[in-house]
């Protein structure tokens, strides 16, 4: 073999290996990488690798990889950055026949163990730019906008309905993902995907173990079925770094299951934080803004910005490490001509400006304006805790306390739970982030606080007490 033939042979072999492995720029060290996210020392919250508090404020963009072109990807992530989101939850594969907006199939013969990759990633060459290159592009855009992408490898129905994914296929696919995104610092893994954790556990454990073993610095959790929690089946799994629950989309009266927590999503948090070892937890799918109560009956009322705020403050004040918001149109990236799901009629690029989406940043700003990592839930602050929409929830640090009401209900508080003889009291408005001073209050005995406005659902307020 002369030198010229040998050179050409080497190039061909390199080309084939590149195509088979799915090599791309993602396998190289990415520029301007975001700091990795890890669990805090007290095991309750997230921090960056440089030890700064990280409050998970997620948006649900499930179908972004498949339905958004490059221009739309830029628009979406720029908007979410402007609104304060720092995590977006996305499906890598909604179905095993997944095809993106450019007509690129994700898999060969709908086999998850055989991702369809091409050499190169030149968008202007249709023979180079593939499904996985578009995922890479999305991750780059997210990184530029300071956003972490929490990716579901394969949506649960592909495993639970029809056995379309075997354990062996799942392991090979997870290894492909782990290798391709090994050096991505803005990748988080959501194993499962709206599925029962006690079913097909061999497959979910195979995916989780493969991802975690190969990339131990990337966080992994399990996104479960409605009204269930990752902790119910995987809390002690070595691959699960934090818990995620789906409080779901039903009203109190729409739920026939007596054993779950219904709309009281704070109860998931309270339970998870009693488990050992301690792990962070958060609501990864509460009721979406603009979706019908119970999902399927489009004649039902729709959840509003009031409801997504309530779920956020209830769970975070109970001790959650963050919160994920969702909107009916945005989660399905609804475009003109799409077949709507769950009665949606609004285009995604309009729905990104829904009221709730703009209000989520205020919970993040509030939590990070106080010493974050010392924060604990403390219901002993409240004498009249209440039930359902009357429920009051409290969290505190050494020199501050925060108490939330969803409907402007009077608060009767046990003082003296934070430092100091006196406290500065004020009302914080979750709808616009504005603070209204009350005055200086003696920090002892029992005190009553009446929020502004009438008692009605959606007239929510946070009482702030600060040591003077």
Automatic annotation (TrEMBL):
Keyword Translocase among record annotations: no
Residue stretches making up the Putative collagen-binding domain: 376-465
The entry's keywords: Hydrolase, Signal
Pfam families named among the record's database cross-references: Apiosidase (PF13204), Collagen_bind_2 (PF12904)
Domain of life: Bacteria
Signal sequence segment: 1-26
Keyword Transmembrane tagged: no
GO molecular function: hydrolase activity
Residue ranges of domain Apiosidase-like catalytic in the record: 40-373
Protein name: Collagen-binding domain of a collagenase
Species assigned in the record: Flavobacterium pectinovorum
